[in-house]
Prior knowledge:
Layout: H1 13-48, H2 55-78, H3 89-115, H4 129-138, H5 143-164, H6 168-220, H7 223-230, E1 236-250, H8 252-255, H9 261-282, E2 285-290, E3 293-298, H10 307-319, H11 322-329, E4 335-349, E5 357-360, H12 362-373, E6 378-382, H13 383-388, E7 399-403, E8 407-415, H14 422-427
Parallel strand pairs: 4-6
Antiparallel strand pairs: 1-3, 1-4, 2-3, 4-5, 6-8, 7-8
Helix pairs in contact: 1-2, 2-3, 3-4, 3-5, 4-6, 5-6, 9-10, 9-11
Amino acid sequence: MEQPGVFSTFHDAATEARYNETARTLRTPFVRLYAVLFMAVMLAYSVINPLYLDPVENARLAFWLGIGLMCIGAYIGATFWQDYVRHPMVDFTALLVISLIVARINFVLFDHLLHIHTNLHAVGVINRLAITAFAAVTLAGRPRLFLGWLGCDLLGWLGQVIPEQTVDAAVVYALLSYLSGALVMAAINLAVGRTSRAAFMLADSLDAERARNEELVLNMLPPTAVERIRTGQMVADSYADASVIFIDMVGFSKLTKRVSPGHLVELLNSFFNHADACAREFGVEKVKTVGDAYLAIAGGNVPSGNSADAAIAFARAVLSGVEELKRVAGVDEVGLRAGIHSGPVVGGVIGATRMAYDYWGDTVNIAARLEGMAATNGIAISESTWLRANDRGAFGPPMMMSLKGVGETCVFHAVVDEADLKPRVAAA
């Protein structure tokens, strides 16, 4: 986002609108405060000046002061309108009307000054420069609008001054006084506008960077874990019924001897991206990648209903990407196999650097062993997963297999039908 010129705006209309709403929202409390203070000043004049005016002039002054106070009150009320910040013409109109009313009040007072005797007390006039300063700050960030306000105010002021003055010199000096104050206020308007735009750009870039960092953190850790880490709590959870999925690439070790490192990274990236998309589709949580293996869990931090059904559906979807992996690898020896086991797991975050939410327990270990027992492009599940699953028709009869570190285990096998894979690959 580039800093716009003196009289230009942000190139993006949405950014310009967001800037104006943000800046005006921040200025609104000060606009109200300024209006209240100005109302107090006018009340003070309405109390003090009548002490030195004759009844006729006092009546004229009271009339215009009453009109001015009502306009300021209406202006303060308008700032509580829910769409006020999107309509700067509210300030433009209100301040212009108030300025013209103050000019009329001052002419009543000036008229008195011209006719008083030297032995009488003088009266005070309201400094109109205060209103111009009010407009300069309120319309900051919109220099063209403020210059337009100054032009309208000048015309209104001249419309009242010229008929009242018979001496040309008085008009010239009054005009010089007005223009000098107006130029100073225009410079203030530009300065406040430029600094507010620069502050908005800085805040916007910080917000964007914070959002990117937040996205990176949430890619590594579940939202609930992030909140607990921020409050200094230990992140440790227990899940009584989860299904752990291990998916490994078959033939990867042989490929490392045949293809370039860049080609291997492209292949793994294709595999993991496809698995990530399937995880989002079936409500499965990605845990981590280990070499060419992908570890995921159903029923952990991400609710998935029946964890066994979600895990099996996810594994089938991932294995459906085999044809695409063959295309990326350029060989037919690439395949995938998956192992699934259901049971209790423990999850949490350990360490203070490179933190990641991980899962531990026998359920994770058994799923990893089952993956090694699966056929190429097949799925091996434990009896506990099979009992939890609603759709068991695709799995063959149980087989007793010896798993390292586990012992004899009842395993069910299923092979994904490659004829059913092509539509998903084409859709991807």
